[in-house]
Write a structure and sequence with these properties.
Elements lengths: L2 H43 L2 H9 L1 E6 L8 E2 L5 E13 L7 H12 L11 H11 L1 H6 L3 H8 L5 H11 L2 H5 L5 H11 L8 E4 L5 H9 L7 E11 L6 H4 L14 H5 L13 H5 L1 H4 L5 E6 L5 E8 L6 E4 L3 H22 L6 E7 L6 E11 L5 E5 L3 H4 L9 H11 L8 E3 L19 E3 L1 H7 L2 H11 L15 H12 L24 H8 L8 H12 L3 E3 L4 E5 L11 E4 L4 E4 L4 H16 L6 H4 L7 E10 L11 E11 L6 E11 L8 H39 L1
Parallel strand pairs: 2-8
Antiparallel strand pairs: 1-6, 2-3, 3-4, 3-5, 6-7, 8-15, 9-10, 9-20, 10-11, 12-13, 14-17, 15-16, 18-19, 19-20
Length: 716
């Protein structure tokens, strides 16, 4: 074979191999395309919807069910306010959920749970009727009105309003009784914003209801079961008005503070404190909500819910209040109030107050008040009225004479030991001014005046402060600024100014408006200006501690919440004593009045000697009786002359650890019915305080001894 023939054969052979290789290549390409097409088919047919939602999904962060509020403890770390766990059923609607879908879910849910209908309004029924009777509702709009709607002269809101107005009584009666339950459920579903859980039922959810709904969540879109909480006040009505209240999920945020709360990440149906401690410390007690991420598609449907952070219970509050002492004090008030009602028979007497506090720190140990009422059935009841200690004011009588004597000392019109004659004062155009019948006319010094509660000693002191001189049967010219001079010094003790207690609603009392000479004398014996019980407690505390006006407070600590039972979290903030002012006078003046107060309870002529002279805790104090006018709830008896009884004091005398004020307004109209309820209450509350102290010290000693014995046993 020549060279030419060889080349031709070689080319022919190559041409024969090429189709085979191409066929192999085409075959592999075919397999690859087939695999790709098959894969695309699987993705589009099997996973297409899922991947489409993944591509189209958007994310939004919302808030889950609020966490429980913080607990409230008393000064001995006994739980006062707790949270009770509750079964709850919620509903969360999306941005695209139709009302008809919600009603369908409500109908199904109504077959599984019982929902009270007492909160259903006529408007709720009308809304339901329109949604379930669309054709009939549309027929209530005239052709002319529809034409105006198409011309955009009427809005959707206008058309809906016309439908509501034209629903008749017959239409409403067409709603069957069993449908009202559906209306009630739909009403709760439709509250609040989309993607925010709404509480459908959280009161009285039975275990059976909870289980049934849990098993049928797939057929109840948007419905979920969870654990809610309810505020539990451990001591029932004890100290109840001061603890305050929270709103229900039905009430939600208070309308008057809606913008304030919404700006702070609250939801419209969140429960918040609406009065007193619950409201005052809302920012502390509020729980930290659980954050969740709702992953939605472009249509607004929820694809996935992811928890970002768990909720946390609110911070705990420790009160200065001793709840065991508070219980005993309230019981004492109730017993004495009922005893006085039986003895006097007066319809005017209906309340009594006690404030007990540490005069050195301002910690309020007991803030108690009781009010005698008749309920709608005419049955007698005694309700908590502790708030009256800061929100109501009365003429306090001779209990304020310590402030009068100290004002006389500081203005220089009298000195410790100054003797004045107690005698009736006859001032022209003024009723006779004199001391009570137990004091015989004659000379006495400042200590005797306090011990026996001389009115005339105080009158003459006030006359001197006013720059005047008493002349029998003559007018008594005074400087009008005498009122402001006396009030300025009274203010230093907390009389006539706010005490600064950490509760809302405190009033300053009621200053008299007249500048007549006789009223200046009345001011000096506590029968012109009116003060609150908490002011009286601060006043006597200032005398007890040597002249420091300390701010009273009912919250002692704020602590981190902790999950372990019977354990307390770390202290976040501790309220330290706050001195509002130092009384601007010599310490010896304060000591002089303290001695006078001691004689009131221990002196041979002391007005409270019969009740306190034998007390082992060595008390000091000042009684008070004020001629006043009734200004209570019985309109027909307004301005009836009556008597208020008061008592302020502290103990022990040499090292005061507790100060107190007892105030009982409108005790009787006839002095012959005198019953010293103020002294009875005062003695019993001090006994209760020191008995509790002794019992606790004994228990601590027993516990220490037991622990010591156990340690010795282990060592053996």
């Amino acid at each position: 074979m020549n060279q030419t023939q060889f080349q031709k054969a070689k080319k022919k052979k190559k041409r024969a191999q090429l189709p085979f290789r191409l066929n192999v290549l085409f075959f592999f390409v075919f397999l690859l395309f087939s695999t790709l097409i098959l894969r695309l088919g699987v993705i589009q047919i099997v996973y297409g919807e899922q991947y489409r939602k993944e591509v189209e999904r958007t994310e939004s962060i919302t808030v889950n069910t609020p966490a429980p509020r913080g607990k409230i403890y008393d000064r001995n770390y006994q739980v006062v306010v707790d949270n009770e766990p509750l079964h709850a059923i919620t509903y969360t609607r999306t941005h695209t959920t139709k009302p008809s879908e919600m009603i369908e879910t409500a109908k199904k849910l109504a077959s599984y749970i019982e929902k009270p209908t007492d909160r259903v309004t006529e408007r709720d029924i009308k809304d339901y009727w329109i949604l379930t009777n669309e054709e009939k509702a549309n027929a209530k709009i005239t052709e002319a009105e529809w034409a105006r709607f198409r011309e955009k002269k009427l809005t959707d809101r206008d058309i809906y309003r016309l439908k509501l107005e034209r629903i008749t009584e017959e239409d409403i009666k067409a709603i069957k009784e069993h449908e009202l339950e559906v209306v009630a459920i739909f009403r709760e579903m439709n509250r609040g914003y989309a993607l925010t859980p709404q509480m459908v039922k959280n009161e009285g959810v039975t275990d059976e209801e909870y289980a049934i709904v849990s098993e049928r969540l797939e057929e109840l879109p948007g419905v979920d079961v969870t654990t809610d909480w309810n505020r539990h006040y451990v001591y029932n009505d004890t100290f109840r008005t001061v603890l305050g209240n929270i709103t229900s999920s039905e009430e939600g945020l208070p309308r008057e503070k809606l913008d304030y709360y919404l700006a702070r990440d609250y939801s419209r149906n969140d429960r918040v404190g609406k009065s007193y401690i619950e409201a005052q410390y809302e920012d502390v007690l509020r729980g930290q909500k659980a954050k969740i991420k709702n992953v939605t598609d472009k249509a607004g449907n929820i694809i996935e819910t992811i928890e970002i952070s768990q909720g946390r219970r609110g911070k705990d509050i420790v009160l200065t209040i001793d709840m065991e002492l508070q219980k005993r004090v309230e019981k004492i008030i109730e017993e004495e109030l009922m005893t006085m009602k039986r003895r006097s028979g007066t319809e005017l007497l209906d309340r009594a107050f006690v404030v007990m506090m540490d005069p050195n720190t301002g910690e309020v140990l007991s803030l108690a008040g009781k009010q005698y009422i008749r309920d709608e059935n005419g049955k007698v009841a005694l309700r908590d009225y502790a708030l009256g200690t800061i929100t109501s004011a009365y003429a306090m009588g001779s209990a304020v004479k310590g402030a009068t004597v100290l004002t006389g000392f500081e203005t220089g019109v009298i000195r410790p030991g100054t003797v004045l004659v107690d005698e009736p004062l006859y001032i022209k155009d003024t009723p006779t001014k004199k001391s009570h019948s137990g004091i015989r006319p004659g000379p006495m010094n400042d200590l005797k005046a306090l011990e026996m509660s001389s009115n005339v000693y105080m009158f003459k002191t006030a006359i001197a402060i006013a720059g005047s001189t008493y002349r029998p049967h003559q007018p008594l010219p005074i400087k009008k600024e005498a009122f402001s001079i006396m009030r300025r010094y009274f203010n230093q003790f907390g009389l006539g100014v706010k005490t600064g207690i950490d509760l809302p609603g405190e009033i300053i009392g009621w200053p008299g408006q007249s500048t007549l000479p006789g009223h200046l004398l009345d001011l000096s014996i506590g029968q012109f200006d009116m003060y609150t019980p908490i002011q009286m407690a601060q006043y006597v505390s200032t005398i007890a501690n040597g002249g420091y006006r300390v701010q009273p407070h009912v919250v002692k600590e704020i602590r981190d919440p902790i999950s372990e039972k019977d354990s307390m979290g770390n202290v976040i903030y501790s309220f330290e004593p706050k001195v509002l002012n130092r009384v601007d006078m010599k310490k010896e003046y304060i000591e002089r009045v303290r001695e006078g107060f001691y004689r009131v309870m221990h002196g041979s002529n002391g007005t409270a000697r019969a009740f306190f002279a034998n007390a082992p805790y060595d008390p000091a104090g000042k009684t008070g009786t004020a001629q006043a006018f009734y200004d209570g709830p019985i309109q027909s008896r307004r301005m009836t002359p009556t008597y208020n009884l008061t008592l302020v004091g502290f103990a022990p005398y040499n090292n005061p650890e507790v100060a107190f004020a007892v105030v009982v307004p409108w005790v009787y109209q006839n002095p012959k019915n005198h019953y010293p309820i103020n002294n009875y209450i005062g003695r019993k509350i001090l006994d209760a305080y020191f008995e509790l102290k002794k019992d606790r010290q004994s228990n601590e000693q027993s516990s220490t001894e037991l622990l010591h014995n156990d340690e010795q046993t282990m060592e053996r």
